[in-house]
């Protein structure tokens, strides 16, 4: 079990430089290494450690195993109108995701809406990154990915659906409102983090081996029975996200990915909407302000607690971590330093 002594504060620039060198050592060209290192470092600075610094050692191990092809990039297969299909060619997931997001925005600039369906790609790490990336450029973003089977269907005990993260992002002021949610109550990365700290989950996140709902992350990891968000609703939404990603991309479904030795060759969808083309665009900012102002007048169930919209505290977390250093487990950081020297 980790404690405070097991964590260190790593300056943002040092973390970025370390990621960069590790990627250069593993076959990335400088431009792609810099872009990928930046994504991992920003995810970490913004507090998404489970899909930033904590995930980096596995990312490197997948490159070594050949699941991730450092020298590959997406290629267009075909399309019609505002929809295009692309093959990720097993390239690095974060770079494929940025490429797909940019192409979706380019289509939206021409058609009002753009959809890139991406097959044969890899884990995108933090899906919200691409929501922020797109929304800051003035576009609505809707995107999702399938995964291997890691969540039981409602009423089942064996995993047949993925926790298939969904991202919805809307431009707001100079930042964005960004929902980034897996179809499980907690991602496996979050469960790992709670277990390592010896902390209970705020609400039940799954079942133990005996079939009892529990807040104990370790027991949920042991049973592999994570709880779908909204119970049967989350399980159903997960199934439909997998079906849509498979249909639109022509790629692999969750049950096909699950037959592989490791999670790769995923299917993803990236949708961008150019709201500047809407006739009432000048009024949208005021409408959003009114919605958020009303939302913030919610009465907290616990005195002193604030009600926040999705992504509201990202800026504060980023500024704090860049000023004070990013908290990292010594064990994880040592693994990363090893990858720099190989």
Automatic annotation (TrEMBL):
The keyword Transcription regulation does not apply. GO terms for molecular function: 3-dehydro-L-gulonate 2-dehydrogenase activity. InterPro entries: Mal/L-sulf/L-lact_DH-like_ah, Mal/L-sulf/L-lact_DH-like_NADP, Mal/L-sulfo/L-lacto_DH-like_sf, Malate/L-lactate_DH-like. Keywords: Oxidoreductase. The keyword Oxidoreductase applies. Its EC number is 1.1.1.130. This is 3-dehydro-L-gulonate 2-dehydrogenase. It comes from Ohtaekwangia kribbensis. The lineage of its organism: Bacteria, Pseudomonadati, Bacteroidota, Cytophagia, Cytophagales.
